[in-house]
Amino acid sequence: MPTIHLADIELALTDCGAGRPVVLVHGFPMDQSIWSQQVETLARQYRVIAPDLRGFGRSSVTPGKVTVEQWADDLAALLDALEIHEPIVLGGLSMGGYVAFRFFQAHRSRLAGLILCDTKAAADTPQAAAGRLETARRVECEGCQFLSDTMLPRLLAPATLESKPEVVDRLRQIILAGDPAGYAATSRGLAERPNFTPLLPQIDCPTLLIVGRQDAISTVAEMNAMSRAIPASRIVEIDNAGHVTPMEAPVEVTAAMEQFLTEVTKPEIRNTKSETNSSTK
Ligand code: MLT
Q1: What's the mean pLDDT in 99-112?
Q2: Which of 260, 247, 226 is nearest to 90 (CA)?
Q3: Fewest CB within 10 A of the end CB: N or C in the chain?
């Protein structure tokens, strides 16, 4: 996997295909390989870039605390390093969605569209933020095993846990391969992330929301509320999937993304709320 040198880090990434750039950002505690099936298909028509964020996968780890502001600026620096100046479609799963919200705030002119998978706009409650600090402490002391043990049952739908052992195993391997210092720095940063809810009505680019119907972390109700708040958006609900839809339902997620990307590249059919804010059942 190639790496790109940014100011203070090396960023590992997949970069393949040609056409409008589509950048896909993974969740926590994961890496860019959660998007492997989307990358494979979308790269037939688009330039697809899936980085390991700072602190994850094969990218550099900067210990202490890493914030959504830092990751969004890393993405902008990555685009500069790749000499990508045209607007991108930015997709993010969960934590990747938090990064996408911040990227919209800080780098709006670089965006042609957003894909928000299984994410939320609200900040952590004080209780959730305290839990993050405890996670940071534990992962530094104990390593990654407890994260995999505690998170897998929440990340994946019951149907996935029961009938897709290869997906469960792959996600477990991804979690266990992470760097405890990267996970700890992320947990501290996520505990402080801002509330992006007031931003939602200002999102003025075409936006696709995707949610697994069994998502226990970013619920269907929460994501539908986000879709209602974002002017040019629509939501696709995916059956038999939890929080990691790109891995749990790759065919359905890729199809939804392909459809949206076609719309984004045909401006005459976008931005009509009556057309775009329907749920796909
Ligand atoms: C993720 O999948 O990125 C996490 O669930 C995000 C979070 O912990 O808030």
Answers
A1: 98
A2: 260
A3: C
183 lines ligand 1 (CB under 6 A): no
Say how far apart CA 77 and CA 124 lie, in whole Å: 27
Residue nearest to atom 7 of ligand 1 (CA): 95
Cα 187 to averaged position of ligand 1 atoms, centre (Å) = 9
Distance 268 CA to ligand 1 centre (A): 35
Res 266: pLDDT: 74
pLDDT band at 100 (very low <50, low <70, confident <90, very high): very high
The residue nearest atom 9 of ligand 1, judged by CA position, is 95
**Distance (Å) from CA 255 to ligand 1 centroid:** 23
What pLDDT is attached to residue 143? Answer: 96
For the Cβ of 94 lying below 6 angstroms from any atom of ligand 1, the answer is yes
This prediction has a pTM of 0.94
Residue 277 pLDDT > 80, yes or no? no
Helices (H), the chain: 36-42, 68-81, 95-107, 126-142, 145-155, 158-163, 165-176, 180-191, 220-229, 245-248, 250-264, 273-276
Atom of ligand 1 nearest to the CA of 118: 2
CA distances from 101 to 170, 194, 205, 254 (A): 28, 10, 12, 21
> Token match 């202490």: residue?
64
